[in-house]
């Protein structure tokens, strides 16, 4: 079966043929690859073609596909049962490991997706502050819960809707939109409404890669302190990706709640939110903020997360090495674009890297939207043809994994040069 045939078949039974919209390759006008298997830095489609993978399941696979320690942990744990709906030792072990790296966070609650983590963190933040209003930034994506699906990035940007059908006005009326990297827009929100929570991606990765600048993030901390609001750093993507401590390595700001996902599960469905004791103790069964999950903290997800994080902390210079790979790629992109006379903006944080077909530096969502998405689509197709699998949208971040070899980097560099020439 070809990719095309398999996708046609899938579309008969699954809306759009996919279980998450951006996978449909809609914004680049191609058919998606249907994946057979992955190994190290490679994906293999059902036609048997090999691709260097810079999507890495949208972030989780920092050690690439089929990493032995993670694979063994999952297999061995699965043999003892997949889920108990009762406490297991691995939950406490993973909790201790994560919290030991963030000295100001006292407790953590595990859930199964980033969406659940941010949704629950918002509920907790509102419960703690006693105020309904929240501030979210245009272009930041925090999963698809109702109150956060307003001018969200990721698939929601790719598909050009600023919101979603089926989200009641009554719910989003408490969501106040501000401009990323713009403190004045945040102050305005606080002037106009009773705000109890700010949620932000400190390193935005869902409108393309747009790091928050230091004054902006420090300003958010100050505003929250002044108004008694809860600061949530959504590090579902940047956690254990930008560095071992996510954005903290770069900004040294202590958020009240941090949400984790992606890498924390090593490829299994696992996410979490962590905070100070006085906040976290408000969660049921200790306090009045309800949150639960049938498969939360299941042993297999915990084992995958533990194996992944243990390996991260046991690997010296991990993020320096990953950073060198990111740097090599964005440097190649930039120099090839310059040679071709095509305006391009590039940036990176650790193992995250991004590029915009844009004349000017991108500081916020409005800037990102000025990118040349048609040019992006052409570039994407050229790269795919040459065996390089990039995220199929201008408004996503790309990643590198530890397994990415010199050969694959060289192959990528050649593909980049040839693709720019072909544009
Ligand atoms: C991926 C992501 C989410 C949503 O996580 P899911 O596991 O897809 O629900 C939330 N916030 C950020 C910053 C993300 O990158």
Automatic annotation (TrEMBL):
GO terms for cellular component: cytoplasm. GO terms for biological process: protoporphyrinogen IX biosynthetic process. GO terms for molecular function: glutamate-1-semialdehyde 2,1-aminomutase activity; pyridoxal phosphate binding; transaminase activity. Keywords: Aminotransferase, Cytoplasm, Isomerase, Porphyrin biosynthesis, Pyridoxal phosphate, Transferase. It comes from the Bacteria. The keyword Isomerase applies. Its EC number is 5.4.3.8. SUPFAM superfamilies: PLP-dependent transferases. It is an enzyme of class 5 (isomerase). InterPro entries: 4pyrrol_synth_GluAld_NH2Trfase, Aminotrans_3, Aminotrans_3_PPA_site, PyrdxlP-dep_Trfase, PyrdxlP-dep_Trfase_major, PyrdxlP-dep_Trfase_small. NCBIfam families: hemL, PRK00062.1. HAMAP family: HemL_aminotrans_3. Belongs to the class-III pyridoxal-phosphate-dependent aminotransferase family. HemL subfamily. Homodimer. This is Glutamate-1-semialdehyde 2,1-aminomutase. It comes from Campylobacter hyointestinalis subsp. hyointestinalis.
């Amino acid at each position: 079966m070809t990719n095309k045939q398999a996708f046609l078949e899938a579309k008969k039974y699954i809306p759009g043929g996919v279980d998450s919209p951006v996978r449909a390759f809609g914004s680049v006008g191609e058919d998606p690859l249907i994946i057979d298997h992955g190994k190290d830095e490679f994906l293999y489609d059902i036609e048997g073609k090999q691709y260097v993978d810079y999507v890495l399941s949208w972030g989780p696979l920092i050690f690439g596909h089929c990493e032995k320690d993670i694979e063994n942990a999952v297999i061995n744990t699965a043999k003892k049962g997949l889920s108990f709906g009762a406490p297991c030792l691995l939950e406490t072990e993973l909790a201790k490991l994560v919290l030991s790296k963030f000295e100001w966070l006292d407790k953590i609650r595990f859930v199964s997706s980033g969406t659940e983590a941010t949704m629950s963190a918002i509920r907790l933040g509102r419960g703690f502050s006693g105020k309904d209003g929240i501030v979210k930034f245009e272009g930041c994506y925090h999963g698809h819960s109702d109150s956060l699906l307003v001018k969200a990035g990721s698939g929601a940007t790719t598909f050009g809707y600023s919101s979603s059908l089926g989200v009641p006005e009554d719910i989003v009326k408490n969501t106040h939109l501000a401009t990323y990297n713009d403190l004045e827009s945040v102050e305005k929100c606080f002037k106009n409404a009773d705000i109890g929570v700010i949620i932000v991606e400190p390193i935005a990765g869902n409108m393309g890669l747009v790091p928050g600048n230091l004054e902006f993030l420090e300003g958010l901390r100050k505003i929250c302190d002044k108004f008694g609001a809860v600061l949530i750093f959504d590090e579902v993507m940047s956690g254990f990706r930008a560095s071992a401590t996510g954005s903290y390595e770069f900004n040294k700001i202590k958020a009240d709640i941090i949400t984790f996902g992606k890498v924390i599960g090593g490829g299994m469905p696992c996410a979490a939110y962590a905070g100070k004791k006085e906040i976290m103790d408000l969660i049921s069964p200790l306090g009045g903020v309800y949150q639960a999950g049938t498969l939360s903290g299941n042993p297999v997800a915990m084992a995958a997360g533990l194996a992944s994080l243990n390996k991260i902390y046991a690997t010296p210079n991990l993020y320096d090495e990953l950073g060198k790979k990111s740097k090599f790629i964005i440097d190649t992109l930039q120099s090839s674009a310059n040679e071709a006379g095509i305006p391009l903006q590039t940036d990176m944080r650790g193992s995250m890297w991004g590029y915009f077909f844009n004349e000017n530096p991108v500081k916020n969502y409005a800037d990102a939207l000025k990118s040349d998405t048609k040019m992006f689509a052409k570039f994407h197709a050229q790269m795919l043809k040459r065996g390089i699998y990039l995220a199929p949208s201008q408004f996503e971040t790309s990643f590198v994994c530890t397994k990415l070899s010199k050969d694959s980097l060289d192959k990528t560099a050649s593909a980049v040069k040839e693709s720019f020439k072909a544009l």
